[in-house]
Amino acid sequence: MSKLLEIEQFTLHYPGRGALLSDVSLHVDDGEAVALVGESGSGKSLTTRAALGLFPEFSRLSGSVKVRGLDTTSAPAAKLLELRRNHASMIFQDPRAGINPVRTVGDFLTETLVRWRGLSREEAYARAVTQLDQVGLRRTKDLMRQYPHQLSGGMLQRVMIAGALLDSPELLLCDEPTTALDVTTQAGIVELLREQQQARGMGMLFITHDLNLAASLCDRVYVLRKGEVVEHGGAREVFMSPRADYTRQLVGATPRIEIDKVPAAPAADGTVPLLAVKSLCKRYELPSGEELTALNDATFSLAPGGSLGVVGESGSGKSTLARMIVALETADEGELAINGRVRAPRPLRAAERKQLAKDVQIVFQDPYLSLDPRIVVGKAVADVFRLHQGKGRAEAVKSAGELLDRVGIGPERFDAKPRALSGGQRQRVAIAKALAARPKLLVLDEATSALDVSVQAQVLELVEELREQLGLTLLFVTHDLAVVSRLCAELLVLQHGRIVEQGSTSKILSAPTNDYTRTLIDSRPRALWEEQLA
Amino acid sequence: MTLTGTIPLLRTRSYGSLLSGTGWLAAAVTLVVVLLSVLAPVLAPYDPDFVDLSSVLGAPSGAHWLGTDALGRDLFSRLMYGGRTSLMGPLIVVVASTALGLLLGLATGWTDGWMSRILNRIFDLLFAFPALLLSMLAIAIFGKGLMAPILAMTISYVPYVARLTQQLVVAERARPYVQAYRVLGFRTPWVVLGRVMPNLVPTIGAQSTLNFGYVLADLAALSFIGLGIQPPTSDWGAMIEEARGALLGGHVLPGLLPALVVVLIVVSINVIGEELSDRIGGKLS
User: Could you tell me if B266 and B213 are in contact, meaning their C-beta atoms sit under 8 angstroms apart?
Assistant: First the structure.
């Protein structure tokens, strides 16, 4: 039998953009799990889609992409359809984008069985239910009648996997199937994929930007950069002793929990805490009329010069907390004091807001959205200097230049609009803008999670540097324990709006007392070889 | 909760040009018509109101390029002068309704108090009124001429601009960059007028371009039924009306030419407006 997936010297040219993939060769055998690792724009998705015969319009192809001997670059449409129906399935990053929101899970799963495999409705229904059981879902008969919006992201991704497995594919293509999910959910999905892949002897091509994840699931790895395979081999060899510079850089940039590198907390000397939060509550009314408690009875404080990590999964209330600290949300109950000044429990007036801005600033998650698209970066920062330092135009521009230079944006970029900058550069500008108000406390709301690992490492380095130079106090909101271990002396774990554990970072990470904290730590993907050792 | 956007399957991007070939043609037609109208006093071969009973309903000739009407007036000159009134009306309406609609839209989109609720209900009410009907009402009150319909048209086009602005503002208000301005301590009026409004102008401008065509057609219709511009002032709508007698006598040109010009300019402006809002709308989303 011919090879399952064999890509040979595949090159894809796109008019105006040059070669998006050049000379890519890779193969996946039956029963083998292979990872394709790379940062955004490296061509991971293009490669996977090529295996299904999906190419961008107007692109020029050379080389071959063969699935069971069928070359998708030249195969007729009917053959490709046959391939997609019988041999290969794909799971996408965002399960919600891949399912029709107005049809039930049952419709989604049985449609192809009835239409293409000629099963009767009853047979199809039975098979779908069995499949749902197999992917670890419960109450499967009720589930068949439910609509996608009634399911959580993790459940929906399981449904999508069930849908992909129904066709009994020989090749399963996974395009970052867990990136949009929480770590604890991700751990379950990864477990499921591994189980199914081994039980069925499927070949799997798993795309990810997360080296740890790749190592936890796959035996072999291809590292892709700018459309070229820079390294490939056994997962352990590639990650433990990388040969290519780029792989080395990637491995070095991948955050790890390193307890001995946790920064020290400032000595407690009885000064007024910079941020003191007492029994803080925030509730939202849902459209259904129910009340959702986003944050419940949160109490903690942060000394000047300290650094606090706030960790939790989506819906834990961590962003709500960050937004309340910078007064984008108003607390329903409790007290929030900054620098000893208790905040009035109402939306702030303009003068109060300006005063607060000098104490606290925030950097948002997505630098593509947090900068005004029309304003050049030099002016964006200068505006803040004019507002807060009362400087004239020329002086403000000069100060802005100095600050931008300090965060690593050279003078040649001062006149650039945000869209001309890369993600990392934009986040640097966002940091400069926040720092221009000379805040004492900097809140980072998932400020590095939208960035590639290597860029994330650089931005984290910058934040560390700035903290030392300016004596900043940090509050870092994130889902990533490794990032916290590097930056924050203290840690606060949130679950469903409640603080379940707080204290020194090194203590919590080495000996968690709370079950949820333990689950969070254990859910981090571990390399296959480590697991075999343990 | 990492967000790494799905890698786009390379959408075909339009390079450079703001308009397509058809769009540029439409722009050229518009420009020619506008220039001929603006420069009418310099370029027009005759006084548009000069009556020459010796050459009534003349066919196109060397002396009169497009012929003459029932009173022997030069059609080409009348078309040029007619453009001055026919284009001026919509221009005033569009500028006024855009300015007013933008401000009201920003105010009602940004705040959520009783004022914006009342304004919103007034917009609903105005949407229910056809612009032409409101104009006739205004004419009944203020008398015939250009001012009453311009006023009425402005009022009835304000809600269109305001609603669009409102929707854009509500979306914009929730964007992180606007929240960043708030956290930085910038005052709301500065943020709204200085930063958010300029980001909306291209989209609103495209919508207003479309409105121009509709208003022009409406005003021409009012003139045609005798409620707009009064004779002898030349106006495309009024010219069509005056030519009805000639049409019955088999003379097509005096009625056909102004009608053609109206169609030409309305179509051209709609093409430009549609293309602009497609491009700009696409860029924003």
Answer: yes
Residue contact B185–A446, C-beta within 8 A:
no
| Any B CB within 8 A of A180 CB | yes
**Contact: B185, A387; criterion CB under 8 Å:** yes
Residue B197 gets the label, from left (phi > 0), alpha (psi -120 to 50) or beta, of: alpha
Question: Does B39 reach chain A within 8 Å, measured CB to CB?
Answer: no
CA A440, CA A361: separation in Å to the nearest integer?
Answer: 8
Q: Which of B4, B10, B175 sits opposite A209 (nearest CB)?
A: B4
Q: Choose among A482, A508, A506: nearest CA to A493.
A: A508
Query: Element (H or E) spanning B59, and its range?
Result: none
Query: What integer best gives the mean pLDDT of chain A?
Result: 90
pTM of the model: 0.81
Flag whether residue A350 sits within 8 Å of chain B, measured between CB atoms. Answer: yes
DSSP conformation class of A98: G
| Dist CA B91 CA B99 (whole Å) | 12
Taking CA atoms, B33 is separated from B65, B205, B216, B234, in Å, by 16, 21, 14, 15
Q: How far apart are CA A25 and CA A429, in angstroms?
A: 39
Helix (H, G, I), strand (E, B) or coil at B127: helix
- The answer to ipTM > 0.90 is no
pLDDT in tens, A252-294: 888 888 887 888 877 766 788 999 999 999 998 877 778 888 9
B285 touches chain A (CB under 8 A): no
Mean pLDDT of A214-240: 92
Opening angle at CA A72, ends A69 and A77, nearest 5:
115
Residue in B3, B6, B10 nearest the CB of A56: B10
Burial-class residue A114 by CB neighbours within 10 Å (0-12, 13-18, 19+): middle
CA–centroid distance for A115 within its chain:
37
> Among positive and negative, which fits the CA dihedral A523, A528, A530, B2?
negative
Query: From the list A176, A356, A372, which residue is nearest B4 (CB)?
Result: A176
Residue A103 DSSP class: S
- Segment A387-430, tens digit of pLDDT: 998 888 899 999 999 999 999 999 999 999 998 898 899 999 99
Asked if A373's CB is within 8 angstroms of B199's CB, the reply is yes
Burial of A531 (0-12, 13-18, 19+ CB in 10 A): exposed
Q: Are A525 and A178 a contacting pair, CB within 8 Å?
A: no
